[in-house]
């Protein structure tokens, strides 16, 4: 094994193609080379969904189903629910004692998330947000450091989060004892997946195609997708590089890319037909995941057993780290 990895996703609903192509596919390959901890981050989900705790609870099962059907293997990795390993909360508390508030206020993601929620209008209003949201990078640091993870798979836009973890680790190591490695990013080359309206795929925009969508739903969603805004009439030449549908062809329909590009640019194909081809390619590519998911859905108790076993494995490591942390701090 090349080292330890921790990553996770918030159970705010079923996972979509952005989650699949932007993370899960890479995780599946990493689990063969690294000791991996894949977390369903239900405490993190409460930072923005504290009023919908029941929903978060139900979504845990959905995310676990998506993890497993996409190919994460409980024999190779620990797949677990964050709140089943209470040591994360204890380490979060202890790390919060040494984390300067400006480090959190400067975090661009918190600002963006808070604006999305309509909570604040500017930097000076950061004091209005709940600590859970402001402090989530500290919980994230605890999630990573408690497994002494050497690596965290991230997109380029998430490097600032990891830098906060590294900074907190450095401070702990300096103040008490060098317990934590400074985790390094594993930056994946992810294909760009846009939502059906051409914006970033996001549940909050209601523009997602979910991993678990049925073929009928996929066909309908792709059929309603935005296309090249400059192509008004069927006879207009298209600009595939400006069309979200073409991005899907690039990922899911490699064998027909050149023909479709040429046909679009020369108005030899209409968008309705092009979307039909795209939907069929997508349906076919997702078929193995969908079939596995349908089988797993029949046995929810098996999924909870897998999460229980994952939590047991995670807890073993987390509680050993906490022993070291308590001893290093020396207050007990
Ligand atoms: S033909 Fe296809 S690629 Fe071209 S604009 Fe229409 S949907 Fe997009």
Provide an overview of this structure.
This protein is mostly helical and 332 residues long. It has 2 domains: 4-192 and 300-329, 3-Layer(aba) Sandwich (Rossmann fold), CATH 3.40.50.620; 203-293, Tyrosyl-Transfer RNA Synthetase, CATH 1.10.240. Helices cover 54% and strands 7% of the residues. It has 14 helices and 5 strands. It has helices at residues 17-30, 42-49, 53-70, 87-96, 101-105, 108-116, 131-134, 136-145, 159-175, 215-223, 244-252, 257-265, 271-297, 300-329, and strands at residues 4-9, 35-40, 78-81, 151-154, 184-187. The strands form 2 sheets. Strands 1-2-3 form a 3-stranded parallel beta sheet. A two-stranded parallel sheet has the order 4-5. Helix 11 crosses helix 13 (271-297). The longest helix is centred in the C-terminal third of the chain and has 30 residues, at 300-329. The radius of gyration is 22 Å and the shape is globular.
Structure in a nutshell:
The chain is mainly alpha-helical.
Count the E strands.
Answer: 5
Shape: globular
Cα(first) to Cα(last) distance is 35 Å
- How much helicity do the residues have? 40-55%
State the secondary-structure class: mainly alpha
- Specify the biggest β-sheet: 3 strands, parallel
Rg over C-alpha atoms, rounded to the nearest angstrom:
22 Å
CATH topology of the largest domain: Rossmann fold
- Order of helices and strands, N to C? EHEHHEHHHHHEHEHHHHH
Query: Which hetero compounds are present in the coordinates?
Result: iron/sulfur cluster
Strand percentage: 5-15%
- Quickly count the helices: 14
- Could you name the CATH homologous superfamily of the largest domain? HUPs
Q: How do the strands of the widest beta sheet line up side by side?
A: 1-2-3
The domain count comes to 2
The CATH first-level class of the largest domain comes to: Alpha Beta
- Averaged pLDDT, please? 93
Low-confidence stretches: none
């Amino acid at each position: 094994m090349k080292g330890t990895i921790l990553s996770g996703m918030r159970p705010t609903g079923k996972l979509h193609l952005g989650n699949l192509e932007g993370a899960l596919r890479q995780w599946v390959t990493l689990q063969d080379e690294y000791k991996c901890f894949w977390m369903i981050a239900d405490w993190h989900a409460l930072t923005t969904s504290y009023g919908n705790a029941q929903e978060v609870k139900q979504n845990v099962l959905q995310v676990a189903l998506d993890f497993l059907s996409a190919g994460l293997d409980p024999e190779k990795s620990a797949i677990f629910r964050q709140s089943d390993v209470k040591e994360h909360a204890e380490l979060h508390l202890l790390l919060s004692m040494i984390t300067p508030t400006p480090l959190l206020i400067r975090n661009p993601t918190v600002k963006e998330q808070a604006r999305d929620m309509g909570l604040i209008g500017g930097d000076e209003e950061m004091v209005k947000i709940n600590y859970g949201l402001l402090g989530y990078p500290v919980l994230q640091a605890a999630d990573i450091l408690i497994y002494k993870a050497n690596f965290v798979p991230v997109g380029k836009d998430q490097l600032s989060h990891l830098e906060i973890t590294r900074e907190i680790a450095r401070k702990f190591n300096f103040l008490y004892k060098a317990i934590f490695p400074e985790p390094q990013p594993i930056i994946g080359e992810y294909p760009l997946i846009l939502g059906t309206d051409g914006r970033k795929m996001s549940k909050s925009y209601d523009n997602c195609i979910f991993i678990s969508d049925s073929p009928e739903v996929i066909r309908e969603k792709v059929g309603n997708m935005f296309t090249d805004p400059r192509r008004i009439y069927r006879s207009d030449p298209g600009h595939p590089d400006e069309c979200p549908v073409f991005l899907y062809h690039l990922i899911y329909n490699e064998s027909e890319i050149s023909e479709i590009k040429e046909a679009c640019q020369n108005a030899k194909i209409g968008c309705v037909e092009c979307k039909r081809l795209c939907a069929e390619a997508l349906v076919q590519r997702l078929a193995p995941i969908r079939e596995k998911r349908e089988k797993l859905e029949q046995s929810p108790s098996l999924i909870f057993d897998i999460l229980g076993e994952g939590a047991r494995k995670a807890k073993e490591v987390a509680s050993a780290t906490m022993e070291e942390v308590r001893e290093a701090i020396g207050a007990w």
